[in-house]
Amino acid sequence: MKLVSWNIQWGRGCDGRVDLERIVAHARRFADFDVLCLQEVSAGYSELRGCDGSDQFERLGALLPGYTSVAGVATDTLGRAGERRHFGNMLFSRLPVRQVFRHLLPWPVEADVMSMQRVAIEATLDTPMGLLRVTTTHLEYYSERQRTAQIDRLRELHREAVAHARAKRPGDASDGPFESVDRAASAILAGDCNFRPDTTDRARLLAPLDAVTPAYRDAWEIAHPGRPHEPTVGIHDKEQWPGQPFTFDFVYVSADLSPCVHDMRVDATTDASDHQPVLLELG
Question: What is the pTM of this model?
Answer without folding.
Answer: 0.97
